[in-house]
Automatic annotation (TrEMBL):
Record keywords: Phosphoprotein, Transferase, Ubl conjugation pathway
Membrane-spanning ranges: none
Domain of life (superkingdom): Eukaryota
Described purpose of this protein according to its UniProt entry: E3 ubiquitin-protein ligase which accepts ubiquitin from an E2 ubiquitin-conjugating enzyme in the form of a thioester and then directly transfers the ubiquitin to targeted substrates.
Enzyme kind, highest EC tier: transferase
Pfam families assigned: HECT
Transferase is among the record's keywords: yes
Active site (UniProt): C720 (glycyl thioester intermediate)
Descriptive protein name: Probable E3 ubiquitin-protein ligase HECTD2
Functional pathway: Protein modification; protein ubiquitination
Length: 752
């Protein structure tokens, strides 16, 4: 009975269950000693000191955005605490003194020498002793790997961890005998079962930071221990998380990537275990995935603090989530928000762009169905005959008046923007099965973005468009462009638009349209890097100003004023009140550059971009936008720049040809040997864009048709259907020559 009471005081490591122990044994095939043996050892140690120590109440703080963790018998502990508090003073056990910080003097060189000696002699005693003592407690871990035991290292800038020593010790660990590896795991369990007396110290946080890098946790047989480590880290206070985030950003790229991959693998295998018997039942460890995701969020925060980031944001994607019920996750998130009910949508960085596209498409479809159903109900309630056309957004335009007709149609049918889009060209007998819609987008975008139209300025250095700052009376055409982008996302059309990344950052500022129309929209924090993506020469000049070592005021003779040409007239604008009278000096040049960049990218184009913003969100207003990064919005609108011609070859359909025909074999031999520039030209020639949809090359539905024309003719493309018409050229040389001529002169009839 006494033992049972003592066991109740321990954190619930799968209830010290035989199932967990059995799963560990089966997963490791007796590689490690059983988990129950570890628990027994700890119990014996606790029983030995039970008469001296009063039990300490363990409180797990609430964790935001994470499922509620299983109870830890707090009611029992509370009763025990009260009963002990009511004891007479003479019966109370004295409080033991704080343990003194151990001194460890072993260096990297000493450890490496010990390992080499052990490998040559087969005597691993010294190495075994090092591992068993080092990982015996959190205090020992911190002492062994601390750069200087005399320094507290209590700042976020320096963790005080000897990273080289940690890497060497963990690299050697997996090549040591099994009893050495078992001793490390046993020591980690000792640390995790420790009864905490108050808040964590920085030495504890250092130990957590080090243990997260343990490569043993890549093995599923250690997942029970790993889960409890992650749970404790997830339950730390926000201040402790702040330290861990800043310390984690100092981890090398290789180790950081391994840490992230380990966490992603843990989540994947808990969702879809290869051997379910290896783990406790899901109902007993519902906190595993929320805890791991919370720790992964700390890594993502650390990654975002550095520019450029340690690893790409796509390295946080977990493609396993593509195979779960994403809409259930999305609806849970919509219903419960960031409450204690866990949803992966609370941590959108882990959801791949393909999965986010599915969420957005299904959300769009549901909105389309809802709007169409409401239209049908309204029609029937008025006793009018239903018409199938009422279920669609029908756009009728004349080719000669494409922009004005499109603007009128979208303005007149604003209530129908969330219906399925169908386009009709007046005077043409064509049914829109997708081709006419794509052609309408292509023609409209080309016309609107033409320099002569004056809405956008094309910057040759950066190969992108930016909003014209010219003032006008009506900004409705900018709203049209925004609505076009929204319709493209809504109807899964990839557009050939070249906006800089800054544009998509502004488009999500804020991601949900504010109710108060006086709230500024499309305004975001911009930097010199953002300007460099649009006007690299100007950005370089401003960068030179910041690094200039001479007297800025005397040599540049500038003020807080900028000049712009509008229709042949030079106009001046103050960057701040009385800016024309404030000289730019060495002391205020940073402020000048920041105000200049903000003026160019925010203030000077505010009305244009606000109209564009409202146009986009008039179609795409959805909570799903909260899941997206600016880079992901760009990919949804324009597709990905990553080309994989081998994937295109595998998914291509043929009409009049077989994939074994010589002409087809010549074609792919030529295309796979093209430079990236020529491959992009081919894709643009055949599809109207040199970028790839979110779903990859397979989503292009690319088709090669046999053209029954003379082999003297060039290839022909139908961009509305992603179709290439290829004459049966007699040899590879002729095919390559005609193909290059065709794709290199696909615009302006070769005159540009």
């Amino acid at each position: 009975e006494e033992k049972e009471k003592e066991r109740e005081k321990l954190p619930p490591i799968p209830s010290a269950s035989s199932a967990a122990a059995g799963g560990l044994e089966r997963g490791a095939k007796n590689q490690f000693s059983t988990f129950s043996n570890f628990i027994t050892t700890i119990n014996q140690k606790k029983e030995g000191i039970g008469n001296r120590n009063s039990p300490t109440q363990l409180v797990i703080p609430n964790i935001k955005n994470v499922r509620e963790l299983p109870p830890i018998c707090l009611d029992v502990r509370q009763k025990q605490r009260i009963s002990i508090d009511t004891l007479p003073q003479e019966l109370k056990a004295p409080i033991p003194p704080e343990p003194s910080f151990p001194i460890r003097t072993k260096t990297v060189k000493d450890f490496q020498d010990d390992v080499e000696k052990a490998k040559s002699s087969g005597d691993w005693k010294a190495v075994h002793y090092f591992y068993s003592t080092t990982f015996d407690s959190f205090l020992e871990i911190s002492a062994a790997f601390k750069k200087d035991t005399n320094s507290p290292f209590n700042t976020i800038e320096d963790s005080g961890i000897n990273a080289k020593f940690v890497n060497v010790v963990f690299d050697a660990l997996l090549n040591t005998p099994q009893d050495v590896q078992k001793s490390v795991l046993k020591g980690i369990i000792n640390g995790l079962l420790q009864e905490w007396k108050g808040p964590r110290t920085k030495d504890d946080l250092r130990a957590y930071c080090i243990l997260l890098q343990n490569p043993q946790f890549s093995n599923t047989s250690t997942y029970v221990i790993y889960a409890h480590l992650l749970r404790q880290i997830a339950a730390l206070t926000e201040a402790d998380h702040h330290f861990l985030v800043h310390w984690s950003k100092k981890i090398s790229q290789k180790r950081f990537k391994q840490l992230v991959d380990r966490l992603l693998q843990f989540i994947s295998l808990r969702l879809f275990p290869a051997k379910p018997e290896e783990f406790p039942p899901m109902v007993k460890c519902t906190w595993w995935i929320p805890s791991a995701t919370k720790v992964l969020a700390l890594c993502n925060a650390a990654n975002s603090l550095i520019s450029p980031p340690i690893i790409s944001y796509t390295d946080f994607y977990n493609s396993t989530l593509d195979h779960i019920d994403l809409m259930e996750e999305y609806h849970n998130w919509q219903c419960y928000g960031n409450s204690h009910r866990f949803s992966f949508c609370q941590y959108p960085f882990i959801i791949s762009i393909a999965a986010k596209k599915v969420i957005i498409q299904r959300d769009s479809e549901q909105q389309m169905i809802s709007i169409a159903r409401q239209s049908l109900v309204d029609k029937v309630s008025r006793r009018q005959k239903p018409d199938m056309n009422m279920l669609f957004l029908n756009v009728k335009v004349r080719r000669m008046h494409l922009v004005s007709d499109s603007l009128d149609e979208l303005a007149r049918k604003r209530a129908d923007l969330k219906k399925k889009l169908k386009v009709t060209f007046v005077g043409e007998a064509g049914l829109d099965m997708g081709g006419l819609t794509k052609e309408w987008f292509l023609l409209l975008i080309r016309q609107i973005f033409h320099p002569d139209y004056g809405m956008f300025t094309y910057h040759k250095d950066s190969h992108c468009h930016w909003f014209s700052s010219f003032k006008c009376d009506n900004y409705s055409e900018f709203r049209l462009v925004g609505a076009l982008m929204g319709l493209a996302v809504y109807n899964s059309i990839t557009l050939d638009i070249r906006f800089p990344p800054c544009c998509y950052k502004k488009l999500l500022s804020p991601p949900i349209v504010p109710c108060d129309h006086n709230t500024l929209v499309g305004i975001c924090d911009v930097t010199l890097d953002d300007l460099c993506q649009i006007m690299p020469e100007l950005a370089h000049g401003l960068s030179e100003l910041l690094s200039y070592e001479g007297n800025v005021e005397e040599d540049f003779y500038s003020t807080f004023q900028v000049f712009q040409e509008e229709f042949g007239v030079i106009k001046s604008y103050n960057l701040k009140p009385n800016g024309d009278k404030i000289p730019v000096t060495n002391q205020n040049r940073k402020e000048y550059v920041q105000l200049y960049v903000d003026f160019l990218l925010n203030k000077s184009i505010y009305k244009q971009f606000a109209a564009f913003y409202y146009g986009f969100h008039s179609v795409c207003a959805s909570y799903a936008l909260l899941l997206l990064r600016p880079e992901e919005v760009e990919i949804l609108v324009c597709g990905s720049p990553e080309l994989d011609m081998s994937a295109l070859q595998r998914s291509t359909q043929y009409e009049g040809y077989q994939k074994t025909d010589l002409t087809i074999q010549y074609f792919w031999d030529v295309v796979l040997g093209f430079s990236l520039d020529l491959q992009k030209k081919l894709l643009h020639f055949a599809t109207g864009s040199d970028r790839v949809p979110v779903g990859g090359m397979a989503d292009l539905n690319f088709k090669i048709s046999k053209s029954e024309t003379s082999t003297n003719w060039l290839p022909v493309a139908h961009t509305c259907f992603n179709q290439l018409c290829l004459p049966p050229y007699k040899n590879k040389k002729e095919l390559k020559q005609k193909l290059i001529i065709g794709i290199s002169n696909a615009e302006g009839f070769g005159l540009e």
